[in-house]
Structures are given as structure tokens and as C-alpha cells.
Write a structure and sequence with these properties.
The chain has 19 helices and ten strands.
Length: 406
């Protein structure tokens, strides 16, 4: 069954990627043996930017590797067991995956067999809007499970039985809500009920997979109402029981402040809003965030300080400062696009003024930096004047201490 429709891909920038037409030809696009699939097709039909380009093909991964090698295209065997080869086109990766069917699944991993049946490949995918294929030449869309109608209705719907799809891969619970937050209008009732029923299945997943999916969800278009719904239906309670109604309200307020300030949503900042401050360290560890992410998560609730936004940005970094200011309902706009300057003086310049190397220079540099920050980061000429005063006072202090000891 071809699944062919009268719908064609609109013109899109990604379709002009150097070497893409040649790659499709090498894999048999003209013969119907290769098609674009997934996000590139979906997002092009929605008229939004495409991040990744994927090709599906009837050919076995070893055949794909051989054809790419013969054509002089760099091929990376990124997942041969699952049929995936990455072709590098002018520095741009394009994933090429052999048509597959599931042999067995355990909610975390799948054993697959390769096939040449497009409908069989589509049937193992998660949502109808992600199971759309397009001919590389004509752009004609192939739709086996009503994905075009769901896309038009802004509906995220599991292919087939939602409970079965979730049993195959538990991460689909979070993906259902992420895709709904990004694309959805009215939520699919059957999908919602299945996710609520199987929410505890998320505990079987690695924390890294949960964190990666959750952080993407938190910055989606409709993240606030969707996360509110997830909390109400107990979707997150097994992995993040600390998130409560107060966290949702902090999250909603943060989203409003980000929008008002014209500052892009940030996943760690939004997670910090959801997280009770006293639980930030625990949640960061549970989700196995990176050390830098954990540090931001913990620091986000420390308040705006009393030196002003630029001083805070200089001391703790712009990213962390914006977190703290927005969460405290303080003005973060001065930091938008701001790059912290470097203190325009070195310890050597203070030694040249007569200070002894070591603790005296370190103390003087701290005093100069403190005044430089307080004055709003003046230029080098002003810093030289500050340095002269600090050095003179330090030398005088040292002389007085020496005289007292004598």
C-alpha cells in the first residue's frame, strides 16, 4: 500500500541542502526506495524551520554504507543494529534508516527486523504526525495512518493502540506531552488516558532519557498548560513528586516574565521555577543533570542581590544572573545581549606601582574590582586612577604596620 496522497511538500530551505538530491538518488529515491520521513516532512507542512533531515530506505544498512562509500560520501555507522547510518553532506548530518518492524520490545529497548514495507515501518512509529513520508523528487506525501488530518487539526495521536505504543517505549509518555505542547490544540483523550494509566512506567527509563525529554518539553510553545495538566493527572509524580501547585504558579509567572522581557525560554531556568528551592540539589542529582546545570538549578532561587543586574551578571555569569533576576521578578533586560567586560588591569601593573607580589597584590586587585563594579565598569583610564589610589593606600598601610612593629 503506497499511502500516496495529493499533498506535496512546499518549498523549504532544507531541500536545497548541498548533496541531498544526490544522496536521495544514490539510495533509489527515483525508484521509490528512499523517502524523507518524520520531522522534516511534518515541520515543512506546518511551515516551520526544520532542524534535522531523515531519510528512510528499503535498503539494508550494509547496502547503504556501501553505496555511500562508492559515491564518496562519508558514512558513519551510528546505529547499524537499528538500521541507522549517518551520511555527512558538506558537514551536515542526514540520518538514513532502513525500514523496520519491531520483533520485541521491553519499554526501553527494541529488537528490530528490517523490511521493505513502508506501512509496516510507519506502524512502529509513535504518532501519526511523525509517520509521514515524502518522495525526494516529487515531494508527494505518503500517509498511512491519518497524519495529515491530525496535523491539520493540531492533534497529537498515537498510531494504533496508545497502551501498546507506550508498552513498546515508555518515553512516549513524555513525548506525547512534548509534541502536544509544541503542536497540539485539543488533547487526544485516548492518548491522555493511556499516559495517565501507564505513568509509573517512566520509572523504568534512564534518568538521562527522562531529563532530555523533560527539558525539551519545558520550553515548548504551550509548556505551561501542558505541565499543569501533567501534574493534575499524576504524570510526573513518580519521578518528580516534589513539584506541586506552587511550582506550577512559579513556572507560569516565569514564562510571563520571559515573554515580557523578550528573553528566550530556558529549560534549566524553567525547571528551577517548578522545583522547590530546598529540593533543587536532590532533583538535579535524580535527573543526572550536568554539574553546570545542577549549579544553575541550585543558584536560581538565590535572589537578585543588591548590586544591580550587571554586577550580578559579572559575578555569577549572565545566564545564572538572568535566572535569578527573572525568578525574583527583577529587571533582567540590562543583561540581554550583554557580555561581561574584563578588569582592565593586572597584578603586574600594581607591582609596578610598588606593591609587593603576593597577598598585597591580590587584596588590591579585589579592592579595585569592587570599586570598578560599583562604578558601572568604567574604562581603563578610570581604572588606572582607582589603582593609583588603592596602591598608595596599600603601600601606606604596609609602611604604617611596619613602623608599628618596629
Amino acid at each position: 500500500m503506497s499511502g500516496a496522497t495529493d499533498t506535496c511538500l512546499p518549498p523549504a530551505e532544507w531541500r536545497s541542502l548541498p548533496g541531498l538530491d544526490r544522496l536521495a538518488t544514490i539510495l533509489g529515491g527515483e525508484a521509490g526506495e528512499a523517502r524523507f520521513v518524520g520531522g522534516a516532512v511534518r515541520d515543512s507542512l506546518l511551515g516551520i524551520a526544520v532542524a534535522d533531515v531523515d531519510l528512510a530506505t528499503c535498503h539494508a544498512p550494509e547496502t547503504v554504507m556501501a553505496r555511500l562509500k562508492d559515491a564518496g560520501i562519508r558514512a558513519v555507522p551510528t546505529g547499524l543494529a537499528h538500521g541507522t547510518v549517518t551520511a555527512i553532506l558538506d558537514g551536515h548530518p542526514v540520518e538514513v534508516t532502513t525500514l523496520r518492524r519491531d520483533v520485541s520490545t521491553d519499554g526501553r529497548h527494541a529488537l528490530v527486523a528490517f523490511t521493505d514495507d513502508w506501512r509496516e515501518d510507519a506502524a512502529r512509529r509513535d504518532f501519526t504526525i511523525n509517520a509521514l513520508y515524502a518522495d525526494p523528487n516529487s515531494g508527494r506525501v505518503h500517509d498511512y495512518f491519518g497524519g495529515l488530518a491530525d496535523l491539520a487539526a493540531r492533534r497529537v495521536r498515537f498510531i494504533g493502540d496508545p497502551l501498546q505504543r507506550i508498552a513498546e517505549d515508555h518515553l512516549r509518555i513524555l513525548r506525547f506531552f512534548r509534541f502536544h505542547a509544541r503542536f497540539g490544540d485539543a488533547i487526544d483523550a485516548a492518548g491522555l488516558e493511556a499516559c495517565a494509566t501507564r505513568a509509573n512506567d517512566l520509572m523504568a527509563l534512564s534518568r538521562e532519557r527522562i531529563a532530555a525529554e523533560l527539558l525539551k518539553l519545558l520550553v515548548a510553545r504551550a509548556a505551561v498548560p501542558v505541565v499543569r495538566l501533567m501534574i493534575a493527572r499524576g504524570i510526573l509524580i513518580a519521578m518528580l513528586p516534589e513539584i506541586d501547585a506552587a511550582g506550577i504558579e512559579r513556572f507560569a509567572l516565569l514564562a510571563e516574565r520571559e515573554a515580557a522581557a523578550g528573553i528566550a525560554p530556558d529549560p534549566i531556568r524553567r525547571l528551577a521555577a517548578l522545583t522547590p528551592p530546598a529540593e533543587a540539589e536532590v532533583i538535579g542529582a535524580r535527573l543526572k543533570l550536568s554539574n553546570a546545570q545542577r549549579k544553575r538549578l541550585i543558584a536560581a532561587s538565590m535572589g537578585p542581590g543588591d548590586e544591580g543586574p550587571l554586577a550580578l551578571g559579572y559575578r555569577v555569569g549572565v545566564e545564572s544572573a538572568i535566572d535569578r533576576l527573572l525568578l525574583a521578578d527583577a529587571d533582567a533586560s540590562p543583561l540581554d545581549g550583554w557580555t561581561p567586560p574584563r578588569l582592565p588591569i593586572s597584578g603586574g601593573a600594581l607591582v609596578a606601582r610598588g606593591l609587593a607580589k603576593g597577598p598585597d597584590v591580590a587584596r588590591a586587585l579585589r579592592a579595585i574590582e569592587t570599586q570598578w563594579i560599583a562604578e558601572g565598569f568604567p574604562d581603563a583610564a578610570r581604572v588606572d586612577h582607582i589603582a593609583d589610589s588603592v596602591a598608595s593606600a596599600s603601600i601606606a598601610s604596609a609602611a604604617g604596620a611596619s613602623s608599628g612593629r618596629a
